[in-house]
Design a protein that fits this description.
Elements: H1 2-13, H2 32-45, E1 49-53, H3 56-66, E2 74-75, E3 97-101, E4 104-106, E5 111-115, H4 120-124, E6 128-134, E7 138-139, H5 142-148, E8 157-160, E9 165-166, E10 174-175, E11 182-188
Parallel strand pairs: 1-11, 2-3, 3-6, 4-7, 6-11
Antiparallel strand pairs: 4-5, 5-8, 9-10
Length: 192
């Protein structure tokens, strides 16, 4: 019986294309500009969005325009005051938007690094998650990020590599099942 089941699985998978993974990077391979470009490419390829902001004033102007579509916000606990949206604060389970301050980003995987101090509920429950990422903390690899952030890391981190999606049932892709259906990484040239 086992052989019969495995045989059916093998036949079903015969014609599926094989996923090709990119070659691993080494920290010395990527300049800051290349890391930013690669991060944008990889996160966008995963279904996320990337916005680049030249500084605090541009970020505040963009944020005011962006948040007009939302009725309230859940704000992460480490988000700097100047980046707090002009919206009513709501609990994460009711907020249509969650806003976080990221510890950094990883170009190799297109991932945003958010610490546990920011609040997991703020990252996972609102349907849209906006994470501000300091531009100087876009790293080429995860190893480089962890090395640079050593001593600043909280007890846990989350790596967000795009919106939540699953095709568990019937192989139909559904967004927002296990977390936000929309992830925006706002790269800001400001240290907070």
């Amino acid at each position: 019986m086992k052989e019969r089941i495995l045989s059916r699985v093998h036949r079903a998978l015969e014609h599926r294309p094989k996923a090709e993974l990119p070659a691993p990077l080494t920290p010395t391979q990527v300049s800051p500009d290349e890391a930013l470009k690669l991060f944008r490419e990889r996160l966008s390829g995963n279904g996320g969005e990337v916005v680049r902001l030249a500084g605090l004033e541009e970020a505040r102007s963009w944020l005011a325009e962006f948040t007009r579509a939302f009725s309230g916000v859940a704000i992460g606990s480490t988000l700097p005051d100047p980046l707090k949206p002009p919206l009513p604060a709501l609990p994460p389970e009711e907020a249509p938007l969650g806003v976080s301050w990221a510890l950094g980003a990883v170009a190799e995987t297109g991932s945003v690094i958010v610490g546990s101090a920011e609040g997991r509920r703020h990252q996972l429950l609102p349907p849209t998650h906006l994470a501000f990422v300091p531009q100087h903390r876009v790293f080429g690899t995860l190893a480089e990020a962890l090395t640079e952030l050593k001593g600043q890391l909280p007890s846990a981190i989350a790596l967000h590599s795009g919106p939540s999606k699953s095709a568990d049932i019937g192989q139909v892709m559904v967004r927002g099942v296990h977390g936000p259906g929309r992830l925006i990484a706002a790269i800001i040239a400001w240290e907070g």
